[in-house]
Amino acid sequence: MFSNPVYKRETMVSTRSFRLALVLLVFNGILALVALLNMYSTLARVRVTAEIQYSSFLDLYIFVAVLEFVMLIFIMPAITAGSISGERERQTLDLMLSTKMTPVQIVMGKLAASLSTMGLLIVSSFPILALVFVYGGVTMRDMGILLVCFGAAALFVGSLGVCCSALFRKSTLSTVVAYGVMGGIVAGTYGVNQLVLFLGRLSGAYAVSAEAGGMTVSSGGFLYLLLFNPTATFVLTMLRLAGREQARGGVAQWFGTHRESFVSQNWIGCSVVLQVIMAAVFVWAAVRAVGPRRRKG
Prior knowledge:
Blueprint: H1 5-16, H2 18-49, H3 54-80, H4 83-89, H5 93-97, H6 103-124, H7 126-129, H8 140-167, H9 171-202, H10 205-213, H11 230-242, H12 245-248, H13 262-265, H14 267-290, H15 292-296
Helix pairs in contact: 1-6, 2-3, 3-6, 3-8, 3-9, 3-11, 4-8, 6-8, 6-14, 8-9, 8-11, 8-14, 11-14
């Protein structure tokens, strides 16, 4: 990948730009300011009450992680949605295809460059996350799981953006479609489960099932649609880290009571694998769209 000419050019341009340095400075400056203020208020409370609330340090870790994940979900489509369509608008895509570079190299180079930029933002904030290690409560394993969750989400969202950029000729349209599809995945999978659960309770199935065997209505198999939702996997990761009551029953307690299964017991791993598979499908579709056969049409 490091020998890919598209990747080398994109990373060289982005790293030399003042905008990237400014984004790194502002983003990490805000995180550092919030972290230091949180630690200062916690230590000031200790001086008064002589009681250390370790949950406040864990809340700091969760806050930084949530902020990074939201940034990832909102920024990645904007970075990748104009990668291929932008080359079309500048009329340089045909020139790239006329060289020895293949559509696979072009698509993978664009995607890898975008992931490198986002990865730089995430990794640069790790020292702030590591402040929690001073007081404990978070292990290296927890941070490793968080990093895997970030990586899978970035790959999934980034490949979706590249796919939309390859399918549509205008960057504006591809960006709108990428955000629309991502919004449908994040909000739609949640909304479908909530709607099915609401309709089940509204139809009186709750009372009937309770009288028959004490079972409650649930969203059924629609729950597994959340495997495609990076936000659901991230929320579950944070709930397990915080030890909240919702996480004790696992995903099987979401949207009603579901039967335990291999997927529900290993939700994070299954969701990560599925996101990687979907990313591969998006990349394949982008390669097909960039290929010469697409241009002839």
